[in-house]
UniProtKB/TrEMBL annotation:
Coiled coil, from the record: none
Top-rank taxon, per record: Bacteria
InterPro entries for this protein: AB_hydrolase, AB_hydrolase_1, AB_hydrolase_fold
Record-given protein name: Pimeloyl-ACP methyl ester carboxylesterase
Annotated signal sequence range: none
Span of domain AB hydrolase-1: 39-235
Any one of the GO BP annotations: glycerolipid catabolic process
GO molecular function: triacylglycerol lipase activity
Protein's organism: Rhodococcus tukisamuensis
Amino acid sequence: MATVTSHQVTSADGTVIAYERSGDGPPALIVGGAFNDRRTAGPLAAALASEFTTIAYDRRGRGSSGDTAPYAPEREIEDLAAILDDIGRPTHVYGLSSGAVLALEAAAAGLPVARLAVFEPPYSDGPRTSDDYLTRLAELTAAGRRGDAVELFMTEAVGVPAEAVPSIRQSPAWVPMKAIAHTLLYDALVVESGAMPRERLATISVPTLALASAGSPPWLREAAAAVAEVVPGAGMGIVDGGFHDVTPEVLAPVLSEFFGAGH
């Protein structure tokens, strides 16, 4: 098992961002989505550690990272810039869901990304949530109603059927999901209306691979395909997986092949 070392960087606004390194080889950074932190990134990091120095971090407001108000998605790009500066060399980046949106924005901003892989950035042609979704999510968060915030996010933003929520509330995953619920508003702001920033993404100049799960709804697969169309020279792949999810056992070989092509 690869040795895991803990690190901290200070972002541009003074927020401390915690991350872990493991493995040996070219650096590969994992940018998680909603409900994700460096703990949930651990299995994928471990699966890649035989070929890469993997970096998993706590996005602001999560785990051991700080959370400086006011929040803005631009602060998360600054967080990535601080981590990449600490790594000190061009880094492969993998982002999933809202983390894929951040990874794409980081590449478009010219951060030192070597190769970029993104899994189902939740872009859509039109709003997929109600007009008052952000307001309701903010109100639930401010009131400390974490469980209700999680339920709202899952049913409106993710598209989980309402009838599936009671069983999810009884699952072991519910406690850690509630613990990170205050950051769901951040994910919502990262995605905003869901519209793809085509002009910005068209400026990305690094090799890019857009991925989607065979088990996801069509709109998420279409979003990945749209990224592949907009980013110059990007590829597109469908992997075996579930609803907006793919296991490290399936994903790691795909990332290893794509990232490894740059060496």
